[in-house]
Amino acid sequence: MIVCLDSGNSRIKWGVHDGQHWLAQGAVAHAEVAQLAALVDHWPTPGKVLLANVAGAEAGQRIRQQLAAWQSVFDEVKAEAQRCGVTNLYKNPAQLGVDRWCALVGARAQTSSACLVVMAGTATTIDTLDAQGHFLGGLILPGLGLMHRALARDTAGLPFANGHFTSQPRCTDDAIVSGAIEAQAGAIERAFARLAVADASCLLSGGNAARLAEHLNIPCQVLENLPLQGLRQLASEV
């Protein structure tokens, strides 16, 4: 049995895998990290516990404290130059965010074709994976919520928008919401156009994935918890 943990900017996603299937998955806010202790109470000691953490050292330590009974099988994953069919072409492979690395590994397990890997959460990352498994590079931009908050915080007359998407916004809230979605969709579609491969696809995951997918004019698929899928793949080689 494997326990996978993806500690992102907003939440900690977790999954328990038996080698064939996910037995359970869930998520907790960082403020509610104590809830992870229930995993120790509910499940026997796993063969491996893998953590991908981009929330900082203190967040990682709090997670370890809740799972202290499993410390002997606990391992924190970092980005590498090559693993699970993915070659990391970052100038400094270790600098790549581990969440992006795990998502790329998860995507490679889903398809052998070239693809964009989009993680749409607090930030949005748009990463390119070719058919040979080479990670060619990627983009990082503010997520939808960050875009909304930046306009509300750093301008004098704009609110925190609670509008709706429309192609021709006629109120300020709709203009902000629509502008943020168009910015994200435009970045994704431009990156996809650069792939220039007939059978390429776009794989999206994260809290805003389904919302963005509705506005994309490219082949796309929404996948749940892609970094957890990548952690599961990495566990098979650890």
Q: What is this structure's SSE topology?
A:
Layout: E1 2-7, E2 11-17, E3 22-29, H1 37-42, E4 48-53, H2 57-66, E5 74-76, E6 82-83, E7 86-88, H3 98-110, E8 115-120, E9 123-129, E10 134-142, H4 144-154, H5 172-195, E11 201-205, H6 209-213, E12 220-222, H7 226-235
Parallel strand pairs: 1-4, 4-5, 7-10, 8-11, 11-12
Antiparallel strand pairs: 1-2, 2-3, 6-7, 8-9, 9-10
Helix pairs in contact: 3-7, 4-5
In summary, what is this structure?
The protein is of the alpha/beta class. It has helices spanning 37-42, 57-66, 98-110, 144-154, 172-195, 209-213, 226-235; strands at residues 2-7, 11-17, 22-29, 48-53, 74-76, 82-83, 86-88, 115-120, 123-129, 134-142, 201-205, 220-222. The longest helix is centred in the last third of the chain and has 24 residues, at 172-195.
Describe, in plain words, how this protein is organized in 3D.
- It is a single chain.
- By secondary structure, the protein is of the alpha/beta class.
- It folds into two domains: 2-76, Nucleotidyltransferase, domain 5 (2-Layer Sandwich), CATH 3.30.420; 82-231, Nucleotidyltransferase, domain 5 (2-Layer Sandwich), CATH 3.30.420.
- 33% of the residues lie in helices and 27% in strands.
- The protein has helices at residues 37-42, 57-66, 98-110, 144-154, 172-195, 209-213, 226-235; strands spanning 2-7, 11-17, 22-29, 48-53, 74-76, 82-83, 86-88, 115-120, 123-129, 134-142, 201-205, 220-222.
- It has a seven-stranded mixed β-sheet with strand order 6-7-10-9-8-11-12, with helices on both faces. The chain has a five-stranded mixed β-sheet with strand order 3-2-1-4-5, sandwiched between helices.
- The longest helix is centred in the last third of the chain and has 24 residues, at 172-195.
- The two termini are 14 Å apart.
- The mean pLDDT is 95.
